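Example record

The entry below shows one chain as it appears in the dataset: sequence first, then structure tokens.
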Amino acid sequence: MGQRADFRRGCAKFVNTVIWALLLRPMPNRSISILLGLLPALLIASCSTVAPTSEAPSDTEEPPTAAPTGTTTPSPTPTATLTPSPTITSTPTITPTASFTSTPTETATPTNTPTALPPEITADVNLNCRYGPDSAYLYAWGVEEGRTATLDGRNYNSTWLWVQPWDALFHCWVTASGATPNVEYSAVPVVYPPLLTNSSVAPPKGVGASRSGSSVTISWSPAQPSVELGYLIEARICSGGFPLDVAITTTNTSYTLSDATSCSADSYGQVRVQNKLGYSTAVKVSWP
């Protein structure tokens, strides 16, 4: 009987150790419940087996002392803590805004712009090119019909044109009525170029003027005799309330002009000697 009691105490101690070992090992709640349900049956089955003895049973055997029953204190069941998974924050994507693509326009092929020709005239008839803008001036050159001349100026009312003939080295004046320009006269400047002179021609002497009402008489001394001797008077007079430029040639030693006094601008004049060689320098008139 002593061996049996020892066997049972050892068995109970072993089973108790196993129970504590299992309870102290982290396991899912469901597995722990299953083991706790099976262990009593396992304890009964294991410890009820009679251990073999060599001693004969004793009539005076003391009643077996019950093995202390171990009180199992259930270990706190680990509570599974749900650790929140990191939230994946989606990065906002930039949606491209649809832009309007302009439709390519056809580029016009550049055209060759013709180079503007310099202003010029073509003679409609044989033209006399003179020293000044009036038929009173001496002949300087000629422009044949169909020939051209560079157009570089005009007088204030576009009746005379200042040109350089294609075969001349200087400028002279032709009447606009006998020429065709390749530009509008408005595109041509008004010019007052100085008159070409010849130092071989002596200027007049004794030039003076007198007034009687609206008449102004200009006089001078005779020049030395020469071929085609004459005198040129260039004056600005008042006519009809407006200033008027005039050119007069004469072979006399005096000339009378009509000059009203109603113009705000002053009148003036000058005298030259002319002959086959050309013009002298001018002598100004002291206007009365």
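Notes for this example: Helices lie at 2-24, 29-47. The longest strand covers residues 230-239.
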